[in-house]
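Quick one:
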Amino acid sequence: MKTLLLTLLLVPMMSFGQTAEEYFNRGLTYAKSGNYKDAIVCNVSER
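Output:
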């Protein structure tokens, strides 16, 4: 029972998480558009 509960709790965390590549690309998009503040905030605060 504990294993089932643990599995049900962890599956959403693994399924909906973003990869490091997605974070990097989002920050890069902000930087390329000249929005350096959001590029830094995106890569620091959303970890």
